UniProtKB/TrEMBL annotation:
PANTHER family: EXODEOXYRIBONUCLEASE 7 SMALL SUBUNIT (PTHR34137:SF1). The gene is xseB. NCBIfam families: PRK00977.1-3, xseB. This is Exodeoxyribonuclease 7 small subunit. Bidirectionally degrades single-stranded DNA into large acid-insoluble oligonucleotides, which are then degraded further into small acid-soluble oligonucleotides. Keywords: Cytoplasm, Exonuclease, Hydrolase, Nuclease. GO terms for molecular function: exodeoxyribonuclease VII activity.
Length: 68
């Protein structure tokens, strides 16, 4: 599955796993950097999903106001 296909929940769960591994420590510098980069990518995916959801809510609220 590509990053573009990840749903919010999948990206969030994988991000939580990345954070747990980083917090546990004991990784090489290279592994830590790779996990950090993956975490950054996952955070961006989550942000995009949340921004899209926010836009949909705002559009729905605007449409409801027009109907009133």
């Amino acid at each position: 599955m590509t990053d573009e296909q990840l749903g919010y929940e999948q990206a969030r769960d994988e991000l939580a796993d990345v954070v747990a591994k980083l917090e546990a420590g004991g990784l090489s510098l290279e592994d830590s950097l790779a996990l950090w980069e993956r975490g950054e990518a996952l955070a961006k995916i989550c942000d995009r999903h949340l921004a899209g959801a926010r836009e949909r809510v705002e559009a729905a609220l605007a449409a409801a106001e027009k109907e009133s």
